[in-house]
Design a protein that fits this description.
Blueprint lengths: L12 E5 L2 E2 L8 E2 H10 L2 E3 L12 E3 L17 H4 L1 E3 L2 E6 L3 E9 L23 E8 L22 E2 L1
């Protein structure tokens, strides 16, 4: 964006499923800590900071025997070990342009996140949690380093949701 004069004054805020893994299979999957190093090398940071916590999961799902791809199905007792329980979702933005006021996630549809709960459910049909963050613009001469990460939603917040 800095090389295009029409975009030079714009700021990037981007939400994505980065498809990262807490413990990646080398050559087959992207490690979440490697992903953090990559976006920092591009002058970006995330709602989780420069170094994401590998156990801050935004997915917890596994296939049942009622779904396609039976080779991926597992018993209920094996859903954590055989399922997709990983830190996959991010909101990225310029490291110098913003600072995080608050970040939260939701896997219930009721503005809360229940750890170790598999989803989708009948009340929450997504296989990724909702991720939201409140960011503030930081003038170039300000140096702000504090972040608040929480499971609760501040009603006054104006979130960026991915």
């Amino acid at each position: 964006m800095t090389t295009n004069a029409a975009l030079a004054s714009h700021q990037l805020v981007f939400g994505l499923d980065a498809n990262t893994y807490e413990t990646a299979k080398p050559g087959k999957q992207q490690d979440v800590l490697d992903w953090g190093q990559h976006y920092v090398s591009l002058g970006l940071t995330s709602c989780w900071g420069d170094v994401p916590n590998p156990s801050n999961y935004t997915t917890f799902n596994s296939r049942t025997y009622l779904q396609p791809q039976l080779n991926k199905a597992c018993k209920k007792s094996d859903k954590r070990s055989n399922g997709d329980v990983n830190p996959k979702d991010f909101i990225l933005f310029g490291k110098k342009g913003f600072h995080v006021v608050k970040t939260w996630k939701d896997n219930t549809g009721e503005q809360k996140y229940v750890e170790d709960m598999a989803f989708p459910t009948l009340n929450f049909p997504s296989d990724h949690g909702i991720l939201a963050t409140v960011i503030e613009f930081v003038a170039p001469d300000q140096n702000v380093t504090s972040n608040k990460i929480s499971g609760e939603i501040d009603d006054r917040a104006r979130p960026v949701v991915a």
